[in-house]
Design brief:
With 263 residues, this protein is an alpha/beta fold. The chain is built from eight helices and eight strands.
């Protein structure tokens, strides 16, 4: 007779089911990048030793948001009558792994106006969300407490009804920004010690996956040396942005990262 244990997954995972279903219908184009982050990592280590409360992830969010501000159409949202809403501020949704009902699952938090905040402020918000006590459905979005009754009702609905609610949220750019931000950044790839790119599923038009960082031979100053290389994934919704604007944004982002922008 087979021996096994039966676990009940938390209701928060239902949102993962929904996001995956919606993400499969997105016309995402993906870019898999290798970026030299040796200079940035060196400066971050030095900054932390000097007492600055920052991290690689909080710095990446700052660089990403500043690069988007220079290319605002990249995180725009399609609206009615063939228009696009290009927001001036960048709200970044980032999943943070928390324990819910004894199971570790990703819960979302949205860092608002990252383009106007310092790296320290972004780091502080991530830390605050990561340490937040999870006491029920009202805490499934870490940024702010919702109504536990409404959240429980939502997660008890069958998926086709939840899809109707999602369609309403996604149809209005302003509700969409307020609910889930304009960009998603996930850094789950940093948990591994092996070279990896991640290809997340997202309802966002722009999704960025921070993969692993590994040391490898690299051409630097016309010499082959060992450098710290980041694997980064960019997903663009082709319904929102064409290939050339996406390529220009990518080129600028890579330069900003390699030049350790804002450090």
């Amino acid at each position: 007779m087979n021996s096994f244990e039966l676990y009940r997954y938390p209701k928060s995972r239902l949102a993962t089911f929904d996001v995956g279903r919606i993400g499969n219908k997105k016309h995402h184009i993906a870019g898999l990048l290798e970026i030299d982050v040796s200079l940035a990592r060196e400066k971050i280590r030095s900054a932390i030793k000097s007492g600055r409360k920052i991290s690689f992830t909080s710095w990446m969010l700052k660089v990403i948001s500043n690069t988007i501000v220079q290319n605002r159409l990249i995180h725009s949202i399609n609206h009615k009558k063939r228009t696009q809403v290009a927001f001036n501020d960048v709200d970044i949704s980032i999943p943070l792994e928390r324990e819910v009902d004894g199971v570790r699952v990703p819960l979302a938090t949205v860092i608002r106006k990252t383009n106007t905040k310092t790296i320290e402020e972004i780091h502080g918000e991530i830390r605050k969300a990561s340490s937040r006590q999870i006491s029920g459905e009202k805490d499934y979005v870490l940024e702010k407490r919702g109504s536990e009754a409404l959240n429980r009702l939502f997660f008890n609905l069958p998926q086709f009804l939840r899809m109707m609610i999602w369609r309403y949220l996604l149809s209005n750019p302003f509700v969409r920004k307020d609910t889930m931000g304009t960009v998603m950044v996930t850094n789950i790839g940093t948990a591994g010690k092996f070279p990896v790119w991640i290809l997340p599923k997202s309802i966002h038009n722009l999704c960025i996956g921070i993969g692993s960082i590994s040391k490898k031979p690299w051409v630097h100053d016309n010499k082959i040396v060992i450098r710290e290389i980041l694997n980064l994934t960019l997903l663009f919704d082709h319904d929102v942005v064409d290939g050339m604007p996406a390529a220009r944004f990518t080129d600028k982002l890579v330069k900003n990262i390699e030049q350790a922008m804002d450090l």
